[in-house]
Amino acid sequence: MRIAIIGQRDFGKAVLDAFLARNDSVAGVFCAPEKPGAAPDELRVAAEERGIPVYQFASLKAEEALLALRALDTDVGILAYVLQFVSQDFATIPRHGTIQYHPSLLPLHRGPSSINWAIIRGDAHTGLTIFRPTDGLDEGPIILQKQTPIGPDDTVGSIYFERLFPLGVAAVLEAADMVVSGAAASVQDESRASYEGWCRAGEARINWHSQLDLVHDLIRGCDPAPAAWTLFKGKKLQLFGSRKHAARTFSQVKGSVGALTTIGEKSVFITAQGGQIEVSKLRYDTGKKLPAPQLCAEIGLVSGTILGD
């Protein structure tokens, strides 16, 4: 099979390695230009080390991008973690078209922060989809899907790196074989569709008056990025490694909402509506992520402090 990979970073590199490992031909790699001062793109570096042509166009809609892909004469295009818009003029150039990886069970959680929102919304499971890209965002016909549970303490990091990353690489190879052999794709059910935009700092601010489950799901749904946060002395305090401890009776409720009630040896406890949030790591302002008790000692965060406004 002769393919073109359109992607970036570690996922794009892993897909490149997987196709090469089974002796497929990677005719070329397309990745976005790196911003000044940014770390080298792992996919670009890996392709150049193997002597594979690399194309870095500011836009894949440009005529030069279309000409470059046509000249490669590929069987399938592989979109492996792509943030650039891919038009149908580009996607339909390979003989068997183009396939794309998305880390949700489409049509649920269309959009760029799909893993974050699945956890924040308290979903019991998520997964990945390999689909045919269209001009609509994550709206194309589905080739295959893989499902995985979301555990009570899973984070974006654990879901992605431990499951959706390796499952996704294998699924891309499987789907490429399917489309070359003529497998059909199924149209998405629009009645079940949902879309969410980016999960960024504005969405990651903690409201300690929210119910315990909502606070816990927000923290782990933003862990490691964009990182859920609250305020301490007017600066951001970011929280990681959340566990929830529900109060069963009124007498089990400790402290005011938003109060840091306990500083233990390995974690701290903060009150939310309905119980306590246990947090193992913190980051303050522009500092480093540290064990929560250590950071409390360094910045003068003591038991009884009310976090937030």
Summarize the structure in short.
The chain has eight helices and 13 strands.
Any idea of the CATH class of the largest domain?
Alpha Beta
Largest sheet report: 7 strands, mixed
Q: What is the mean pLDDT?
A: 96
Strand arrangement in the largest pleated sheet: 3-2-1-4-5-6-7
Q: How much strand? A: 15-25%
Q: Give the SSE string.
A: EHEHEHEHEHEEHHEEEEEEH
N-to-C CA distance: 58 Å
The count of DSSP E runs of length 2 or more, i.e. the number of strands, is 13
- The dominant shape is elongated
Q: How many domains is the backbone divided into? A: 2
Number of helices: 8
Instruction: Please identify the structural class as seen in this structure.
Output: alpha/beta
Name the CATH homologous superfamily of the largest domain. Answer: Formyl transferase, N-terminal domain
CA-atom Rg in angstroms = 22 Å
Unreliable runs? none
| Assigned CATH architecture of the largest domain | 3-Layer(aba) Sandwich
Percent of residues in helices? 25-40%
Quaternary organisation of the protein chains:
single chain
Look up the CATH topology of the largest domain: Rossmann fold
